[in-house]
Specification:
Shape: globular
Largest sheet: 8 strands, mixed
Radius of gyration: 22 Å
Number of strands: 22
Strand order of the largest sheet: 3-4-7-8-10-11-14-15
Mean pLDDT: 77
Order of helices and strands: HHHHEEHEEEEEEEEEEEEEEEHEHEEHEE
Oligomer: single chain
Low-confidence stretches: 50-55, 72-119
Number of helices: 8
CATH topology of one domain: Jelly Rolls
CATH class of one domain: Mainly Beta
CATH architecture of one domain: Sandwich
């Protein structure tokens, strides 16, 4: 994309005005480069900052684009007073450095949505990031966090080691750092890489799934036990009941739907499709006298609003919908 056209598309996506074709183009652009994802994160956060000013949206966007293009250098850390030991350092990401510069230059206040639990760690939560909004780390890696997920970054990250702890689900795009592996601790498992992209899912039962989209990943519970080597298209699974890790092929086309918003159904049983859609949109879908003759569906939803999804499903099921709190009921149309 040409620079001007590219920025116009990103603005549409940020403001929620992009159509289906533009969303598809945007997703391709995001997947093509980690630098693109980082640029989008900076532009989006900067736009959120400037939207509080008294300038027009167009003027705000020009300021945002110009400043992010130019780039600013802000210290990698801020110093906080400590009653007992002087000062301690809290590391900031490139995104926050850009945000801090914009606060100073545009004069806009910004509440940082990061919780510091102790001087030894920095905790990022998925609820504080928008879908497809990465958190850029100091080593150049990008992390996308699902809702209700937490990433803990330990003090000293990037010096002798790059170690983080994950609760929930995240997608990682790891930058190369020669001799310094990137380590993700999840439940009782460890994922170790140098430079690659992968998705990590974990739940409260202790189950962990690591799905690799590029490069090579090491996945294990203990280095004393077997270490799985996973490549693109493969998935490592840890079952706490068995206490072991196993390798399989990735068969779920929607394992990244929480991040991309793209839901793919290929001869998917109707009940399974509705369950996945309900989880994605935080709704419960119920069938009342419809769908008996439809065993499966084949369709793709490209980051579409719930209303558009309900319209397509209603046509497919020859039904109408009724909403009761967080429950969507499909009823016969006539």
């Amino acid at each position: 994309m040409q620079k001007e056209t590219e920025e116009q598309l990103l603005l549409k996506v940020i403001e929620g005005r992009a159509d289906e074709r533009e969303v598809s183009l945007f997703n391709q652009w995001m997947e093509s480069s980690g630098e693109n994802a980082e640029l989008f994160a900076r532009l989006k956060k900067a736009y959120q900052l400037s939207s509080f000013s008294n300038h027009s949206a167009k003027a705000n966007w020009e300021k945002v684009a110009n400043k992010v293009r130019a780039g600013y250098t802000v210290p990698d850390f801020i110093e906080l007073p400590d009653n007992s030991r002087g000062v301690r350092q809290i590391w900031l990401s490139p995104l926050l450095r850009v945000a801090a510069a914009l606060v100073l230059l545009i004069g806009i206040s910004f509440l940082l949505k990061i919780t510091v639990f102790s001087p030894e760690q920095l905790t990022i939560t998925g609820n504080d990031l928008s879908r497809n909004e990465p958190y850029p780390m100091s080593d150049g890696s990008l992390v996308f966090l699902n809702d209700d997920s937490e990433l803990i970054i330990f003090k000293g990250f990037g010096k002798k080691e790059r170690k983080v702890s994950l609760v929930g689900e995240a997608y990682f795009q790891i930058a190369d750092a020669e001799g310094i592996p990137f380590v993700v601790q999840t439940n009782s498992t460890t994922t170790r890489v140098l430079g690659t992209s992968f998705n990590v899912y974990s739940d409260r039962s202790g189950e962990v799934r690591v799905s690799v989209t590029s490069g090579t990943v090491e996945f294990f519970e203990s280095e004393a036990d077997a270490i799985l080597m996973l490549v693109a298209g493969e998935q490592g699974m840890y079952d706490p009941a068995k206490g072991s890790v196993e390798k399989t092929m990735i068969t779920d086309p929607n394992f990244q739907a929480w991040r991309t918003g793209v839901l793919i159904f290929r001869e998917t049983p109707l009940d399974d499709a509705l369950n996945l859609l309900g989880k994605h949109y935080s709704k419960t879908f119920l069938l009342n006298g419809v769908g008996e003759r439809i065993g499966s569906i084949t369709t793709t939803f490209y980051n579409q609003p719930l209303e558009a999804v309900l319209e397509e499903l209603s046509l497919l099921l020859n039904s109408k919908t009724e909403s009761r709190n967080d429950t969507i009921i499909f009823k016969p149309a006539s």
